[in-house]
Amino acid sequence: MPDIVWFLIRRLFATLLVLLALSLAVYLIFYALPADPARLACGKPCTPDLLARARHFMQLDQSVVQQYLHFLQGIVTGRTFGEGSAAVHCDAPCFGYSFPLARPVTTLILDRLPITASIAIGAAVLWLPFGVSLGIGAALRRGKLFDRLAVGFALIGIASPSFLVGLLAILVFGFWLNMVPVNGYVPFTENPVDWAWHLVTPWLVLAGLQAASYIRLSRSQMLEEMNLDHVTTARAKGAGERRVVFVHGIRGVLVPIVTIFGLDLGGLLGGAILTEKVFSMQGLGELLISGVGQLDVAVVVGVTLFSAFLVILANLVVDILHGVLDPRVTRG
């Protein structure tokens, strides 16, 4: 069997084990909190009889092990809370049921995911080429004005809090200049132009801040690559500088860039919390914050696990791309 196939099998198996261990850890941590979801759903007055009935309906009167097994079963086959006409069914994959919102957590996640995905993917399309090209350009012009400006921009971006930059962008471009919307979200299916117009400020703010780390990484990596032996040999054989840069240099730069990009994008897809809060967008980050504020444990557990799943999935994709960029990885 080819090395790449064994490599994929090992990575998939390791990913499943990590997801299983993570789900157990998250479930135990959040359900060990003092907050009692049954008491919160019981209402007032909450008599001992009503509390017992609420705990039975929510399946909280079982042991922690049984609850966790029911949770895993819900992800695979779905889950039903209660009995008879009052029963509530949650289709697979069921990450829990929010009784305060009277909706499955999976439905809540899917409703909010397009907003978060629009912010994260749109910003990623901007920050990746901008940050990498600026960093490589700075490395090729080391010590010159372009290099100093790029490094200065990177230092400012890394040191700037995202919420502060977002608020300043809203103040200047939204209120003073009245150029862009200051909050809200328009679905792409309703009006693609308004969708992009409402997202342009979050995209630019997030892309500018994220690009800062890519400028520093790609610059330092390019400087290192251009001093390696195989690059020196290529130059000695008469290869042009353009070929040396694009064939030998950039390939080495892409390996760490792919790693950080996959993890950054996976993390943002799980909820761009500060960006969503500043620009008043109801994405996964806002859902998580509201779940914490309402002590809605099912929402907190579901969103946390879903976000972790996206990060681990991004890590798996990064491992696969590493195998393509550097075949030695698949033989490791």
UniProtKB/TrEMBL annotation:
<dbReference type="InterPro" id="IPR035906">
    <property type="entry name" value="MetI-like_sf"/>
</dbReference>
<protein>
    <submittedName>
        <fullName>ABC transporter permease</fullName>
    </submittedName>
</protein>
<dbReference type="Pfam" id="PF00528">
    <property type="entry name" value="BPD_transp_1"/>
</dbReference>
<feature type="transmembrane region" description="Helical">
    <location>
        <begin position="115"/>
        <end position="140"/>
    </location>
</feature>
<feature type="transmembrane region" description="Helical">
    <location>
        <begin position="12"/>
        <end position="33"/>
    </location>
</feature>
<keyword id="KW-1003">Cell membrane</keyword>
<dbReference type="InterPro" id="IPR045621">
    <property type="entry name" value="BPD_transp_1_N"/>
</dbReference>
<feature type="transmembrane region" description="Helical">
    <location>
        <begin position="196"/>
        <end position="217"/>
    </location>
</feature>
<feature type="domain" description="ABC transmembrane type-1">
    <location>
        <begin position="113"/>
        <end position="322"/>
    </location>
</feature>
<dbReference type="InterPro" id="IPR000515">
    <property type="entry name" value="MetI-like"/>
</dbReference>
<feature type="transmembrane region" description="Helical">
    <location>
        <begin position="295"/>
        <end position="318"/>
    </location>
</feature>
<comment type="similarity">
    <text>Belongs to the binding-protein-dependent transport system permease family.</text>
</comment>
<keyword id="KW-1133">Transmembrane helix</keyword>
<dbReference type="Pfam" id="PF19300">
    <property type="entry name" value="BPD_transp_1_N"/>
</dbReference>
<keyword id="KW-0812">Transmembrane</keyword>
<feature type="transmembrane region" description="Helical">
    <location>
        <begin position="152"/>
        <end position="176"/>
    </location>
</feature>
<keyword id="KW-0472">Membrane</keyword>
<feature type="transmembrane region" description="Helical">
    <location>
        <begin position="252"/>
        <end position="275"/>
    </location>
</feature>
<keyword id="KW-0813">Transport</keyword>
